[in-house]
Specification:
This protein is mainly α. It has one domain. Helices cover about 70% and strands about 0% of the residues. This is DUF2165 domain-containing protein.
Length: about 180
């Protein structure tokens, strides 16, 4: 069973094709897409739960309340809600891009199709990294000192998304993720 002589039209050839890097890139992109769809869906359908999270993080009301930092707090409910709605919009856009990327991987044939899938995946995955890396780690964790809160600390959850998105981005950009000559 030499790999170079195996025909992709045979049952074994079709099965082995499932083990290719483009299929892995599609599966990983689809996994992140599903996660982002569910995150956005949850924030829309259970608006109040994470709205409280955003309000507490921005208000810095469960931090150490260091006077050197408390000037950063945002206590305006209108600004807190605007920030939360912006997060939800970003999540919906991210989910849409990743769903499109997953679809492009699954229907793509040939060099140009997989290049488009790779680019779409990259855009969506970078959006995830910006939301959870820059948004949760940088802005929430450091600027609003979320790390100081034992009640309203989303850094562990954000880390899971950053790791999954970063790993997927690496797989998507491995040289074999785009098939040559299909």
């Amino acid at each position: 069973m030499a790999g170079s002589t195996e025909r992709t039209g045979t049952p074994l050839g079709r099965l082995l094709r499932l083990g290719t890097l483009p299929v892995a890139a599609a599966a990983l992109t689809g996994t992140v897409a599903l996660s982002m769809v569910l995150v956005a869906f949850g924030n829309i359908t259970d608006f109040g739960t994470n709205q409280q999270f955003v309000q507490h993080v921005l208000a810095m009301d469960t931090t150490f309340k260091d006077p050197q930092l408390m000037w950063r707090a945002i206590t305006s409910p209108a600004l807190q809600n605007a920030a939360y709605i912006a997060i939800i919009v970003w999540e919906v856009l991210t989910a849409a891009v990743l769903v499109l990327a997953t679809w492009l991987w699954s229907v793509g044939f040939g060099q140009n199709a997989f290049d488009r899938a790779r680019r779409a995946s990259s855009v969506g995955l970078v959006m995830v990294l910006l939301l959870f890396g820059a948004g949760f780690f940088g802005i929430g964790g450091e600027w609003f000192a979320m790390w100081q809160s034992s009640d309203w600390n989303g850094l562990d959850s954000a880390l899971r998304y950053v790791v999954l998105a970063a790993f997927t981005l690496i797989v998507v950009h491995l040289p074999g993720a785009v098939r040559r000559g299909d």
